[in-house]
Amino acid sequence: MPSIDQERRLLPTYEYKQDLIDAIREHSFLVVIGETGSGKTTQIPQYILEEMPEMKKIGVTQPRRIAAITVSKRVSEEHGTPLGKDIGYMIRFDDHTSSSTRLKYMTDGILLREAVQDPTLSQYSVVIVDEAHERTLETDVLFGLLKKTHRLRPELKILVMSATLDVEKFSDFFDECPIFEIPGRTFPVQIIHHQSMKINALKSNFVSTAVETAFYIHTKEKAGDVLVFLTGQADIDRACQEFKDKCSELDYTRDVKYYDVDDEEQVKDVSVYPLYASLETMEQRAVFELSRRGSRKVVFSTNVAQTSVTIPGIKYVVDSGFVKEKSYDPNTGMDALLVTSISKAAATQRAGRAGRTAPGKAYRLYSSESFEHLPDDTIPEIQRSSLLSTVLALKRMNIVDVLNFEFIDKPDETLVMKALSQLFLLGAIDHHGVITELGKQMSQFPLSPYLSRVIISSATEYECSEEVLTIASVLAGDNDLFRAPSPRQGEDLIAEAEKCKLKLAHHSGDHMTILNVWNEWRRNDESRRWCRDNWVNQKALANAKSVRSQLIDIANQLKLPLVRTRRIEVERTSGKKEGRSKEVVREVDAVPVLKSFLTGYYTNIANKASGRSVFSHYAPDQHLAEKSSHTSSALVALYLHPLCALSDMFDRNKTRYSQIEWVMYMHVTYTNRAVMKGVSKILWDWVRSGKGHERIRQLATAHLNGVDKKKLNKKRKQLLDDSSAQASSVESSDT
Ligand code: ADP
Ligand code: MG
């Protein structure tokens, strides 16, 4: 085994160390391109750290939180210092840096927030935007901001690192800066297409086809590890299970083509790993180690293995042709994660993973004709997402005229206008498109503007911020609060889990249910056992606890009062049919809590259609325009997610809960239909009497992009004054 130092010297970047340093010294902007695994992320920042003492602090951005964590751990190890000292990472709600940190890995979102607070990014000498080819929304906005920062502070070094060839665009954007190419050492990869399969037809069964193909490779191909690209946790867990099941029935002497008892090189065993962006899967060291002799490693992964992390030993790639991507849904006005087909560039990257250390093979589950019809490149996220937080961040930076911001690829103008109107509806910007005090407060929270709005109104209007902060902390995480046993675990367990859920459920829906679960968890000393026994996701709660305390810090900074809402007395019937008894209990009043949520989500409402659990999305602007009755604007059919508190109620207590007329939901996900999550019962009256409807009416006459010329010019002048003041203060502090 080579030592960690030897490993570093073997990487392709190593022989270009001095050239890289020279180039960084010489240029303000530099684009670096090199194959995945060549050492860009782990090595180049270290070269600067070790060889360029004049550089004070180096910031490196990653699109994925998980990459920031694993890379900084690896680099600390290589550097021989504990994580958080010389080298650290910072992601939303998790800071592992200290005053002595000189190399900081972080998400692009973190640097974006820092640029909002300090447009000169004065703490850094070098900023590296890594994985630039991923073209996340945050990365794209950073590009525009960094150009501005460069004008304010020309001595700041800006590096853009990318895995793919098409980087001229980056260079053009940054004043035609030089491109430093690290030649790859790649081996040929043979591409095999499933010629009879059209990609559209594949969509419904790519998981099982991928499993079959991986199994085919395992039994018919020579030694070498397999990397299978799927889309998300659910299909990856399923594929792992199906693959293991198939292998458990395998007779190696009979079924495996290259099986030979005496040959050490032959495959006699298999280990299966899931890999998705959660720490548990990333911290399984074995995924990142070479397989034992005679054993084959099969990894089912999301896109994270496409360019963000490198798994050694991969000789075979199975490309499902699909990816889960954030997409804007114009019907509901929200972002949703959708499974979509990949681009040619992505397919090429995926195949390339098979040829890193030896010749390899890539099995594409779709035909070569389908491949030809794929788009050349993935559409940048900025052109396919709701731009709410981005536009708010730009407005916060006094970039009033968002449409003319220096974007590398302009977002769709209608999406910008949509974001502007949503921000106006939330009260974050005024009629002239200028950020309001409320908007400034909202932008302080690392949450969606909707959720930030809710927290603020719970503190300033409805006196229930303690409760709302709890609920928002759970909603801010991406974990479901309840766990559901899989069908294979049997009817009994499913029934048991349902019973637990019903016990904790609140009759108004998910928001209050979350509060119930939280309170019960606290009452049970936050015990893991209680979570296990009640089918509650302990991780979601533990995570929410840390998020909550950070949100409270921000609320305190903003001087938002923390108040507990009043308790009300309600009558409850208990016991079985015969001998029912009535008792009076005191519980949290749901009304102010739900009204707080409505201040953010009053456009996310639906009313019950004819079917038992079908709802129709309500489009308020359309509704007002048509002046039709509020029950008629059926646009999209929405369904309740099976884990929703109300969804159980539909089945169990039909009589009492079938009275639901209106619901508010937090977001929509798509499987084969549009499914609402985070759903609670509301009254139409609350919506009608809220401030929101007035704003919907005013929307038509507002100039949200700051087209009010007079005001804009005044603002521009003020901005120029601000930035020259900033520039001169930087100069004086540097000399
Ligand atoms: P690039 O950014 O060019 O894709 P990296 O700097 O991420 O390359 O990785 C360079 C090499 O470092 C990888 O090929 C791998 O061998 C090694 N490496 C990176 N991360 C780890 C890790 N967490 N554990 C072990 N080896 C790692
Ligand atoms: Mg990298």
From TrEMBL:
Species name: Umbelopsis ramanniana AG
Keywords: ATP-binding, Helicase, Hydrolase, mRNA processing, Nucleotide-binding
SMART domains per UniProt: DEXDc, HA2, HELICc
InterPro entries (alphabetical): DEAD/DEAH_box_helicase_dom, DNA/RNA_helicase_DEAH_CS, HA2_WH, Helicase-assoc_dom, Helicase_ATP-bd, Helicase_C-like, P-loop_NTPase
Residue ranges with Low complexity bias: 721-732
Gene Ontology CC entries for this record: catalytic step 2 spliceosome
EC number: 3.6.4.13
EC class: hydrolase
Single GO MF annotation: RNA binding
Protein name in UniProt: RNA helicase
